[in-house]
Amino acid sequence: MDKETQEFLEENFDILGMALGTQLSNEFSEMKTEIGALRTQVKQLSNELELVRAFTRESVDKQVSEYFAARQLSFLATLERVIVEDLSLIRFGDGEFRLMLEPDFRLGFQSNSWELAGQLSEAFEFACSDPRVMMALPHFSTHAHWRNVWERIWYNLKPRLLELDEFGDAHVSRPTFFQEFGEEAVKTWRRVWESKRVSVVTGKGSRFKLQDALFDNCSSVDMIYSTPTEAVDDVDRLIAECVKNVEERDTELFLLSLGPAGTLLSAELVKAGYRALDIGHISNSYSVSFEGGEWPERTPLVSAELT
Asked: Is residue 38 assigned to a domain?
């Protein structure tokens, strides 16, 4: 920088600073205006998206409620059919559906994979078509959780349900059944396995408990344990263990409490000629209704004794 330029800058420093400050202030003001406009646009877009979502939700609610009202058996009718016709029970809940239809979804006790999604899809198709099986699905609910679930899966699930004329209520093993029907719910379940030689398949240290109030009328009960988490990887071994129990203990009925692995295992056992019922969280559900226990999802996945 030459001396003349330096002197000019020194003499006019304040003026130049004010000019620069004014320019920056104007630019900042313009930026604030643009940001404000963008915020308004984002808010408008958000409102529009919420309207679209609300419309979609109402449409899904209507479709699901109408479909289920025309085809789903009641709690008691579901179990009566299982008892009278000696059916197996395969249940699909929100976890199984989302693992089957959403590749990025996983449960706290079961990771997902394309292989698992395919296996669940095969089990679903089998349960929908085999006359030895009572397929059971969750009943329609406007609870926020279920509205969100149906909104996510309905349009992918709907084509798979077209050939399903009748199905049971998967919530027969949930607290709602016991809360609504009390002792009648207990007595109806007990009729399913009364005087039968039973094998229970569940995760070691898992939430399942062999409640006397439910199971003390079995002729015998043997336990087959899997892992409390990632049990899908154990299905092949479990099939062999179940067959062994039939040969050595003359098991008449398998009761499964093993999440998505139980869904897969129940289908495989029926294919092999055995009778299997996915009883899910039945022991916790009994505890919620009669003992003031916690809902299944609020209890630890694994007993503290094993952690």
From this structure: yes
Q: Whole-prediction pTM value?
A: 0.80
Q: DSSP letters along 48-109, please? A: HHHHHHHHHHHHHHHHHHHHHHHHBPPHHHHHHHHHHTT-EEEE--HHHHHHHH-TT--BTT
In angstroms, the CA 284 to CA 206 distance is 11
- In terms of C-beta density within 10 A (0-12 exposed, 13-18 middle, 19 or more buried), how is residue 292 classed? exposed
98 in the same domain as 176: yes
Q: Are 171 and 281 in contact (CB under 8 A)?
A: no
CA distance 126 to 247: 25
Of 226, 213, 219, 221, the closest CA to residue 283 belongs to: 213
Examine the domain organization and report whether 287 and 177 are in the same domain. yes
Q: Using alpha carbons, select from 189, 86, 95 the residue that is nearest to residue 137.
A: 95
Task: Give the pLDDT means over successive 10-residue stretches in the chain (307 positions).
Answer: 60 61 68 70 54 61 93 97 98 95 91 95 96 95 88 92 91 96 98 98 89 96 94 96 95 96 98 97 93 77 55
37 shares its domain with 111: no
Q: What is the 3-state secondary structure (H, E, C) of 219-259?
A: CEEEEEEECCCCHHHHHHHHHHHHHHHHHHHCCCEEEEECH
| In-domain check, residue 105 | yes
Going from the C-alpha of 37 to that of each of 25, 49, 51, 135, the distances in angstroms are 18, 18, 21, 54
